[in-house]
Design a protein that fits this description.
231 residues, alpha+beta, 2 domains, 6-stranded antiparallel β-sheet, 45% helix, 14% strand, elongated
């Protein structure tokens, strides 16, 4: 399955004109030939690895690594290209921080508007012809891939995405247990649980809590978790 990442997220079928806008690099005055980048992806959900991506994995990696300046998506979306009859050439790329994107990159060459119209017609025959994932899907992916070496390195070098990742981990903890505020932590201390302590260790392992006030509280109530001291 070959996908082209879109600039916007949509959840219903597009008109021909809208599809053209998502495919072309410049809708205002397109010049041919048009080189349309896209990536080979697995149709299997959650199947990403070091050299292959699911649709969700590719779209998130593309938004994180290839769109400048980096921005946190509210969702991600891609258009699926038909497999047959297209001059869609595999080209090793080195533009992305992620190996799986670089090794699965393709360039589709369109020579004219006639070829564009043919492509749009073939795309519209695919059901579905787009793959969309909302913010919750993005968050679940982030939690699932926290230990991926490439993502670990990426978070270290991108402040926005590191902050996004930390908030997802912290929000997940607070939804499962309680807000990291003194009143709730005091209440928890009356009946501590192994599960919550395990999740506190997880917070620390991923440096997910950076707010000084919250770190002070965690240090005060959970010193045995070896939280770094706060002056």
């Amino acid at each position: 399955m070959k996908l082209r990442a879109t600039r916007e997220v949509f959840y219903s079928a597009l008109t021909e004109e809208d599809l053209k806008g998502h495919i072309l690099n410049d809708m205002e005055s397109p010049e041919y030939p048009q080189i349309i980048s896209n990536n080979e992806c697995s149709a299997v959900v959650n199947s990403e690895n070091a050299t292959s991506d699911s649709a969700l994995s590719f779209l998130i990696k593309f938004k994180a690594s290839n769109v400048a300046p980096s921005a946190i998506p509210n969702g991600v979306c891609g258009i699926e290209f038909p497999e047959a009859g297209l001059p869609n050439t595999h080209v090793n790329d080195n533009q992305s921080h992620f190996n799986s994107i670089n090794v699965n990159h393709h360039d589709l060459r369109l020579e004219s508007e006639t070829e564009l119209n043919k492509l749009v017609a073939e795309i519209r025959e695919l059901v579905p012809h787009y793959h969309s994932f909302d913010l919750d899907g993005v968050k679940r992916y982030v939690l699932r891939t926290l230990d991926d070496p490439e993502w670990v390195a990426f978070y270290q070098n991108d402040k926005k995405w590191r902050k996004f990742k930390n908030k997802i981990i912290q929000d997940s903890f607070e939804k499962k247990h309680c807000p990291i505020v003194e009143e709730d932590l005091k209440e928890y201390m009356k009946a501590p649980s192994d599960e919550m302590e395990k999740d506190l260790v997880f917070l620390k392992q991923h440096d997910a809590v950076t707010d000084a006030k919250k770190l002070k509280l965690l240090t005060r109530y959970f010193s045995k978790m070896l939280w770094p001291p706060i002056d």
